[in-house]
Amino acid sequence: MRKIAITGIGHTVFGNLSDFDLVDIMAYASLDAMEDAGILDKRDIIEQVIVSNMGAGILNHQTGIASSLVSRLGLEPAMAELVENGPASGGSAIKIGFMAIASGFVDVVMVTGGEVMRGVTGWEATDFVATLLHPEAEYNYGLTLPAFGGMYTRMYMEKYGLTEKDLALIAVKDHENGSKNPYAHVKVPCTLEGIFESPDADVVNNPIAEPLRLYGMCPVSDGAASIIMCAADSPKMKYFTQKAPVYIVGVGSATDTHCIHQRENPLELKAVRKSAEMAFKMAGLNPGDISFAELHDAFVILEVAISEEIGFFNRGKAKEAIRRGETRINGRLPLNTSGGLKAKGHPLGATGVSQVHELVKQLRGEAEEGRQVKNPKHGLAVNFGGFGNNVVTIICSKG
Amino acid sequence: MRKIAITGIGHTVFGNLSDFDLVDIMAYASLDAMEDAGILDKRDIIEQVIVSNMGAGILNHQTGIASSLVSRLGLEPAMAELVENGPASGGSAIKIGFMAIASGFVDVVMVTGGEVMRGVTGWEATDFVATLLHPEAEYNYGLTLPAFGGMYTRMYMEKYGLTEKDLALIAVKDHENGSKNPYAHVKVPCTLEGIFESPDADVVNNPIAEPLRLYGMCPVSDGAASIIMCAADSPKMKYFTQKAPVYIVGVGSATDTHCIHQRENPLELKAVRKSAEMAFKMAGLNPGDISFAELHDAFVILEVAISEEIGFFNRGKAKEAIRRGETRINGRLPLNTSGGLKAKGHPLGATGVSQVHELVKQLRGEAEEGRQVKNPKHGLAVNFGGFGNNVVTIICSKG
Q1: Within an 8 Å CB–CB cutoff, is residue B126 touching chain A?
Q2: Within the 276-295 window of chain A, which residues sit less than 8 Å (CB to CB) from chain B?
Q3: What residues are paired with B299 via a beta bridge?
Q4: How far apart are CA A223 and CA B81, in angstroms?
Q5: Burial per residue of B39-58, b for 16 or more beta-carbon CB atoms within 10 angstroms, e otherwise
Q6: Phi, psi of A151 (to 5 degrees)
Q7: In chain B, which ranges are continuous DSSP H helix?
Q8: pLDDT surpasses 90 at B203
Q9: Residues B194-229: b if buried by 16+ CB within 10 A, e if exposed
Q10: Are A100 and B99 within 8 A, CB to CB?
Q11: Could you tell me if A254 lies within 8 Å of chain B, comparing CB atoms?
């Protein structure tokens, strides 16, 4: 398969951007990636645009936004499609961009993901996300993603002895990393004392979906991220000025049952494991080769569960690494160096692209002071769709 | 690039299916394709599912339906994504399925497109389709697709001397073909007299968007279509029992300005021409090699405009071929043998897949009596997104 380089990365701040048009913020991230790639004046080398987004129809009353973005950027006649896979839309879009280049169809692809979801109220946002559940077997009964997150967290805690303090340690780590990431939605560090003993502890510990509380889940964020990819064997590589190439070396994705109740063991995240196996196989790497990872912690429990499912830790053992600080920025295996979904935020369609943006930034050695992983070689991202029903894993390596 | 065969095709009837769930009708079309392919009991050879759909979010309050379809069919852990490109979502999904196989990532892909859009009233349906226009420069001013269709029709008539009778001749041909297609939404033939002189002429000729009337545009339809593709060099070809292989030999897509007012000549459909040029180049074919074609006649004028833009006729000359009956089923170049969008119907996400379904059916020699093209070798489909802002062309050939 063709070797594929990431030649440019772009990002907006994540947060409340509800005054902005969805396509405009995607255009901003795209221009940021073109500038990083050094092709602002040569943007016509982009042959295919893939947009990742989940809610343009429901939240923004727009469709066909891939064409809209192309036209906003003056990229016509570049080919353009939107790819949707719930909260894993970004990972899926990168996978499909990878396929487009690997097929020999095109040499240069831009993948831009974005979501503007804070224009709706809290209840509507939860309802919107719940549209990815089974319409008759789950959604109609009022099930929501936080409900599944709470159930999963409780089951995991009971089975493996994970404590609320362990979960809080993940939040503390994520907020610490996020506080140093200029793109993060939540830039305020937090401490264990702040979570459990502050005068606001009642507010902080108000249950959202038992045992999930404020520090157990991600905020609702707007934002966009973009990457530009080029076939390493293409003559078009000469147009890119970015001198620290990062390569996509592994891509995998897999589905699991749409309904959670159909899973023999709801704690097992089969699609996570299979997508990671596929990516590791393509890359010729093992979990032990990975220097750092972005894991889809929409609920902090997912950082734990995913890290075990893909083989970073044995089952039930991640908590020990957390307690020893191994997943912090200077630990053995830093996780969610960007702040993760927990602190950086989770604009659904942007998240998978933002994760790979972070892999590239770290592998280039360009992360901000205090959150740069030391000499990383391989980074991995898991983008989790539904409640684990459609998962994408991507591995990037330094050139 | 790898040679890719279409090994199975499936279809629901097009019409009013608003009592059915969107994913259920997509599952029906998928099962129909699996049955045609002979893999109902070996469906686990499907490695990637691509769903094409435009309105699940707005019309059906569902997202993540690619995972939903996979699970409804028991295809886990097959990879799955939804591809959206307005009314050209189906063509885009086939293009991306083609890339997935050509890249060597997978050997077997199922592409299923569907739309359930009659659950909303006429006004809401028009509003829904208008979401693909520019949100600030077009949509906010109340512009709709029929408005653009009417404007385009009037401009074309004035420039090239096309008459209302010429347009009616296309409707008559499409209804004639549709009346013989069991999947067609509108199975009632019509005549010139019926259109212009019937006692109902006032109703029939009530303007929708001058000069567009009832017979100038497609109905609002529900429906789904599916195709299964396999790399011709794959050992998995042995599982398919369908003995009349049809190959995808050309694929092209291109974008034009999102806003119509930005086009120097609004009659020119640049994305149509470029996507066709790309597909012809890949196929090593010329317009004169094509035996028959499905052209996206959401408004009948588009059959005329597209047929000229891709080189079947010189500009302004299609009307002469129409008057001579050359585009009828036994003519020199049959167009919209399925009945086209005009009579078969236009469930947006299904249309591009349905067009290729028709190419395969004709190339196999399996079309119903009275609408089978004589010994066709190459068929072409143009799937038109937005008002020509994102167009996909696909060419299929007999093995």
Answers
A1: no
A2: none
A3: B217
A4: 22
A5: beeebebbbbbbbbbbbbbb
A6: -60, -45
A7: 22-37, 56-60, 65-72, 89-102, 122-130, 145-160, 164-178, 192-196, 201-204, 270-283, 300-309, 318-323, 340-344, 348-364
A8: no
A9: bbeeeeeeeebbeebbebbbbbbbbbbbbbbbbbbb
A10: yes
A11: yes
Query: CA A214, A215, A220: angle at the middle one, nearest 5?
Result: 65
- Chain B environment of A58 (Cβ under 8 Å): 57-58, 61, 63
B210: Cα within 13 Å, side-chain hemisphere: 0
* Tokens read off for A216: 């157990």
Best residue in B103, B115, B259 for a mutation probing chain A (most A CBs within 10 Å): B103
Residues in chain A within 8 Å Cβ distance of B77: 254-256, 270-271, 274
CB A275 within 8 A of CB A392: yes
Rounded distance between C-alpha atoms, residue A330 and residue A315, angstroms? 23
CATH for B4-120+220-239 is 3.40.47.10
Q: Which residue has the tokens 């889940």?
A: A217
> Tokens 């749409």 correspond to what residue?
A258
Instruction: Decide: A358 and A183 in contact? Cβ < 8 Å.
Output: no
**Chain A environment of B1 (Cβ under 8 Å):** 103-105
Q: Peptide bond before A207: cis, by omega within 30 degrees of 0?
A: no
H-helix or E-strand spanning residue A177? helix A164-178
ipTM of model? 0.97
Contacts across the A-B interface (CB distance below 8 Å): 218
pLDDT tier at A207 (50, 70, 90 boundaries)?
confident
Residue A219 scores a pLDDT above 80:
yes
Chain B residues touching A135 at Cβ < 8 A: 21, 23, 60-62, 68
Contact (Cβ atoms closer than 8 angstroms) between residue B58 and residue B128: yes
User: Would you place residue A112 in the very low, low, confident or very high pLDDT band (cuts 50, 70, 90)?
Assistant: very high
Six-digit token pair at A6?
Answer: 């990431």
